[in-house]
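Each record in this resource describes a single protein on a pair of labelled lines. An example record follows, reproduced without changes.
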Amino acid sequence: MEREDFIRLLSPEGQELLANSAAYSDKGDVVKLVSQLRAKGYDALLVAAVLTQTKLRKRGQAKFGQFAERMLFTEPGLEQASRLSVAALHAGRFRDAGIRQVADLGCGIGAESMALASLDIDVRAFEIDEVTAAVATHNLAPFDNVAVDQADVTELDLDEFEALFFDPARRELGGPARERAARKFDPMAFSPTFDFVMVAAAKKPTGVKFGPGHPHEGIPDEAEAQWVSVNGDLVELSLWFGKLARPGIKRSALLIDANGKHEITSDSTARLDAPVGEIQEFVYEPDNAVIRSHLLGQLAEQLGAHIFSPEIAYLTSNRAITSPWLKGYRVLDNLTFDRKKLKAYLRERGIGTLEIKKRGSDIVPEQLRKELQPKGKGAATLIVTRVGDAHRVLVCEPLS
């Protein structure tokens, strides 16, 4: 979002159009809608800005629920913002530790500050980008215990705050609209840098949000590391320092779903590998939080399951297992991966609907589907994977 677009949205005309934005989201013919609004005398740039916000608000409902209806968004700000349910868990850590004041350093559009403020924690929120800081100010206006400032957090005196929360920028903006973004995988390219954040975290209670792909070797020994999955979507790695870290827990995987919260923890940073054995009647795809946290061995131990190939994160068992951490399949056939033979196999059985999964294989599922040309009323799941040096395809049916 450009500065001028933000100003347009705050104008009386912009507020009037935004107040009716929910109705615009149901309009299928955008060209006709724009023509109608222009015919009523609305400026073309204002109409474009409002329709962009309408689109972002609709997307924002997945993270913010009904609160998205009154919020403003930038494209990268919405992309990096925590889901409100996850931000609430972050805020709960600070509350449970007895902390009354937090500096939200790199607040983005304000998700973390919103959650903290709702628990009556005083928040000083800082954002280096002018427009994003203005958007956060708008979104946090209902809370009188939040102050938002545009500032470079590396230039602040952090000693004045009781506790800190960092969400380092992991995307770099570019292009005239400043809405295109590219992920940053080098922690030293974060803003603020990884080293700056770690120095600050060593001094007082601190929470840090990173992307879930952050390397294990980049996690300090003194931190509690938690990988969070929401309905099977791995969303973040959070690091907790000082009294925000739970005693006796070094790593954890947290799954949030419709049935509540589920967690696997470890008191060690050492990786426990799952035992290796033969493929059995049932194969299970673990939640990515378990895989990424290197807690698959703990889960396998709890469930009495094993993997069938080193470094391939599928569990297998001779019994049906019900677990929120697993998506299960019954193995109908275990075949050598040969495209021609597989195509004939599917044709003979009239399998026309295919779910194709892969792990340890360089196939492209959509390309493979085109090659197989499935036809028929039957359905199956294909798991293309590796067992030792051999590529196999497991023909499966999902467990209900």
Remarks:
- The CA atoms of residues 209 and 238 lie 5 Å apart.
- The chain has 14 helices and 18 strands.
- The first strand starts at residue 101 and ends at 105.
- The chain has three domains: 3-67, 78-266, 282-398.
